[in-house]
Structure formats: structure tokens, C-alpha cells
Amino acid sequence: MIAGINIYEILTLTSILFFIGVYGFFTRENLITVLLSIELILNAAAVNFVLINTYLYPDLLQGAIFSIFIIALAAAETALAIAIIINLYKLIYSVEVKDTETMKY
Amino acid sequence: MEAILFYILATLMIIFAVASVTSRKILRAVIYLLFVLICIAGLYFLINYNLLAAIQLTVYGGGVIVLFIFSVLLVHHVELELEKTSLKKKIIAGIISLLGLGITLWAIFTYTFKTATTSYSSIEVKDIGFKLLSYGDGGFILPFEVISVLLVAVMIGAIIVAKGKKLKEN
Q: Nearest to residue A47, comparing CAs of A76, A3, A19, A10?
């Protein structure tokens, strides 16, 4: 718990972060920058898990552990997505969203 | 003191997050994201959850950002500027996000949270370790195993996907 800060201020901060990520997800046209926006969204969620845990249920650990899982999943997702992006660049020499129109089959 | 620190971190976080989704130089956008992630690690330090702050700094600051920088340098020219997004798209996205933010904030502020009164000091590494490996009530051994299998699968998958066509030809 942060002294002098109530839970509403923290939830406001994380909601703003989340919707900045959503805005980036809608406006960006490059696959790597779309991934950056997804990272912002995931981080806002992880902060929410930890802070709600410490403010509402300080004697439990569920939120704290779930945030570790979120970070692991985010790292896995980034690694796989970047592998796909690099493969795509080898195939069509572009990582713009509008150029990726066909799937493998 | 802690409140002032929180406000400084929050301001920095929002400024850099906006810069990260609007910057037209892609490498700069990645570095702005790095600053946001470091500020979030600072937030974890503020609530005395040192393990997660360390994980955040090593996995995000050390791993994910380096991956991003590598991929940017592999597929782009460093000086390249992204295409401008059309104003119409920006306005629509802005309206959707503001609407979502408004609804979320309305939902948050109309709900009364029952903030716990028991004193909280910190989340200890020892408790996290025991909880992750306990198979009793409320233990996390199964998701822990699943995530380790998932990480191995992702490692192999990423290697195979990034290798691409060459694997098929051999």
C-alpha cells in the first residue's frame, strides 16, 4: 500500500495506460508498433492485479502471483510475434499491416 | 514523500506512453516504452514488491526491449519515419478510447472498494516461492508447470518460425 494514495487514483492511472495502449493499437500501421501497444495493455493489467491485491486483500498472494504469469506470457508472446514478423519480412519485405493480406494457405 | 514519488512516476508514465504510441520514429517509440516499463518497476518498488520489480526490470528492460530493438534494426532503416496515420482514423480511435476510458472510470468511481484495514508491509519472496510450489489448497503448482512447458514450446516454436523457408528446403 502506498501511503497517501487511495485505490481510485491507482485504478485511474492504470485505466489511462490501458486506453493509451488501445489507442495505439487502433492507429498504428506497423506490426512492431502494434506489438508495443499490446505490451502497454498487458502491463496495465499486471499493475492492476498487484495493486488490487495489496489494497483489498493484503494477506493473500493470488494477484501477486498472477502478475508473474502475465509477465511470462507477455515475454513468450513477444518472442513468438517477433519471430513471425521477421519471417514475414523475409517473405514479402514489409511489416506494414496493410501489406499482410494472405495467410499461409 | 511516497505520494509525491507516485505522482512523479504517474506523470512520467503517461507522458512516455503517449509519446510511445504517437512517435513516428520507431526506435524512439521502443525507447519510450522502455521508460514506461521502468516507471512501472518503480511503482512495484513503492509497494515493496521487490521480486516483481526485479522481474520487470530484467524480463522487460533486459529481454523484451532488446528483442524489439533487434527486430526494428533487422527490418527497418534506422532513420526511417513511419507513414502518417490519417486524421480520420486518429479521431475515430481517440473517440473510442476516450469513450472506453470514460465508461471504465465511471464504473470504478461508482463502486466503493472495501479497502483492507490490516497493516500491509511487503510481499516476501519466500511466501511467493512456497505458494508457487504448493500443491495444497490454493497452490499454484499446476499453472507453474504449464507456464514452464509453454516457455519451452515458445522457444522451439520461435526458432522454427524465424528460420522460415530454409527448413523446408533442406
A: A10
